[in-house]
Design brief:
five-stranded antiparallel sheet, alpha+beta, disordered C terminus
């Protein structure tokens, strides 16, 4: 390269190379269905990790206990279960980009962070600083959570933190007595080892009366290796403090539905009866718990039904049901996120029966909440059922339309017949959402059709197919599936089209980009795919060096972030961090000009910075 003006030197510091980071409050979706803020996940992983690197710029931990997230395989277009291998925290010195999509999903990232986009039926990355209004970003449509494995244990753990008393089945009482032993001394020693909170005499009095503190019973069950599920099934009654006994909620479908009713139209112990059917269901569920709800009728006002204090405390513990200022503080609890889909659907059904509406004018199922956190939580939770929703920030309303409305009807629905009938009719007539159901194919179909060995006419694919290939319209996910089916019927290999997995992915346009600043930012290294889901959006963490080398043609773009081409030592590859400096020269053609780019990849330590600057200036 003789032209000195076309030579560029780039010094890459570890913060830049590995620091395609997200803000502290961005929520990652774990494979068990839970969502957690980046800063909280880092602290959780830190306690179970091994320190890999720490300096004034960053703090990195290698994860030893498995934590799995949803991750997109770009080759197949499918969501996969992948482990987090490293957790990163950086001191941030740059302004960040808050990218908000048309459906309300938003993610705050560093400017160099790559968003996955669909262009001409191929996935590509666009840095946050290069995004513009209208760019179509790959987002999650369906996240099939592997939940429900230990939610009963989580319920018992949470209830054990309060003064709940339980009675046990005859079989469980005998099992505990047998494990405690016959001699008084052995019993005392065992109870001491279990660290129960009550005195020996008090515990045995409670055991005879079959009224035990749940915290003590739970501690004993762990000591005697009684499974949480077995204990759960052998609790007969429960009461809070000195309150009256309630039948322990074995029918969890009804209990979760009741929780949805309270979140919708409840206030402390009070449930405001909006519909006769809901009054009937409320009374039925309370009766199944062993009590009759009290009525309060005031002329000119809606009838109110009152549950007892134990029910209120159960709802507060399990569902984070707030006792004060409920409407502004409701949210989806961690236990609810960890529950099986069938139970989550029961909760949502109860909530939508109270507050949900079927809007004919908008062709959407909607729900309004004074809690912005609840709307954010709902957007993530609904993805479990293939429902990608739209949140209107101006009226605090969430809308479900198009294909998502059909999934809502099939997997959640309403118990109120009138609402269910309207929702079913709406779903049957829906052709697709213009926000969430379009596939931005660009020139991809034209290229795909023309590359076939045998000529395939546009009319043979479909009567209106030419409108999509010529770019007049973007097909909905339903139309795109029909197009793929037509190609398949002609015996054409459709692997390139199938990876545009419209069952699990959505392509939502950017609505707004704003600037924000956070002192600390975070990143998480994910095995193989190098991406995760944050606030419903596919978030990528490919290294900057690999991206530059791939752009020059020296390596495949598919290997960017996997090859770690400048991290040549085994320890660097294993840990995913830069330990020793390395350099490479690449060429890049821009327009009719060719440039030589010299890259110096460094660990990023403060005392190394001067050397980088001197090398760049040489």
């Amino acid at each position: 390269m003789k032209n000195q003006a076309n030579i560029r030197n780039i010094g890459i510091v570890a913060h830049i190379d590995h620091g395609k980071c997200i803000g502290p409050d961005e929520r990652l979706v774990l494979y068990n269905g839970e969502s957690i803020k980046a800063k909280d996940l880092f602290e959780e992983l830190k306690t179970n990790g091994v320190l890999a690197a720490k300096d004034e710029e960053k703090e990195v931990y290698e994860i030893t206990s498995p934590h799995f997230v949803f991750s997109l395989n770009k080759e197949t277009g499918k969501m996969e279960k992948k482990p987090v291998t490293h957790a990163w925290k950086f001191n941030n010195k740059t302004e960040m980009k808050n990218v908000r999509l048309r459906n309300g999903f938003s993610v705050c990232t560093t400017p160099e962070h790559g968003f996955l986009a669909l262009k001409d039926l191929k996935f590509e990355f666009i840095e946050a600083k290069d995004l513009s209004k209208g760019s179509a970003i790959v987002s999650a449509r369906k996240l099939s959570a592997s939940s429900g494995e230990n939610f009963k244990e989580q319920i018992l753990e949470k209830l054990s933190q309060k003064q709940f008393y339980v009675s046990l089945s005859k079989e469980m009482k005998e099992k505990i007595n047998e494990n405690l032993g016959k001699s008084k001394e052995k019993k005392k020693i065992t109870l001491q080892n279990c660290s129960i909170s009550t005195k020996f005499s008090t515990f045995y009095f409670g055991l005879r009366k079959n009224r035990l503190l749940l915290n003590d019973v739970f501690s004993l069950s762990k000591y005697f290796k009684i499974s949480p599920n077995e204990l759960f099934e052998n609790i007969e009654t429960i009461n809070f403090g000195c309150g009256r006994k309630n039948i322990f909620p074995k029918n969890l479908e009804n209990f979760y539905y009741l929780a949805g009713l309270f979140v919708g139209d409840g206030s402390e112990r009070r449930f405001v009866v909006g519909k006769p059917y809901l009054e009937k269901r409320f009374v039925e569920i309370c009766n199944a718990f062993g009590f009759n709800p009290k009525e309060k009728i005031v002329p000119g006002k809606t009838k109110e039904l009152y549950a007892n204090k134990t029910i209120l405390e159960l709802l507060n513990s399990i569902f984070d049901y707030t006792k004060k200022m409920k409407s502004h503080n409701v949210r989806i609890s961690k236990i609810l996120e960890s529950s099986p889909d069938t139970l989550v659907a029961c909760f949502l059904r109860g909530y939508f029966d109270c507050d949900g509406t079927v809007e004919k004018g908008r062709n959407a199922i909607s729900i309004t909440s004074a809690s912005t956190q609840m709307l954010k939580d709902l957007q993530i939770t609904l993805l479990r059922f293939g429902c990608i929703s739209i949140v209107n920030k101006n009226d605090n309303t969430l809308y479900i339309s198009g294909v998502s409305a059909k999934h809502f009807v099939n997997h959640i629905g309403f118990e109120i017949e009138e609402k269910m009938s309207k929702a079913t009719n709406l779903a049957q007539k829906s052709t697709g959402s213009q926000v969430c159901d379009l596939v931005p194919i660009g020139n991809g179909l034209n290229s795909f059709r023309n590359m076939q060995k045998n000529f395939v006419s546009m009319t043979s694919i479909g009567h209106h197919y030419y409108k999509y290939e010529n770019g007049q319209y973007s097909p909905t996910v339903t139309t795109f599936a029909q197009i793929v089916g037509s190609f398949k019927q002609k015996g054409i290999e459709i692997k390139a089209l199938e990876k545009i997995n419209t069952e699990e992915l959505a392509f939502v346009e950017v609505e707004e980009i704003s600037n924000e600043y956070f002192k600390e930012v975070y990143d998480f290294t994910v095995a193989d795919n190098h991406n995760f889901i944050a606030n419903g959006v596919v978030v990528h963490n490919t290294t900057m060096t690999d991206s530059l080398v791939a752009a020059s043609g020296l390596m495949s773009e598919a290997l960017a972030g996997k090859q770690l081409v400048m991290d040549f030592e085994d320890q660097e590859q294993a840990r995913g961090i830069t330990i020793n400096a390395a350099n490479i020269s690449i060429t890049q053609k821009i327009g009719d000009q060719e440039y030589l780019i010299n890259i110096i990849d460094t660990p990023g330590h403060v005392d190394f910075g001067g050397e980088v600057l001197r090398n760049e200036g040489s």
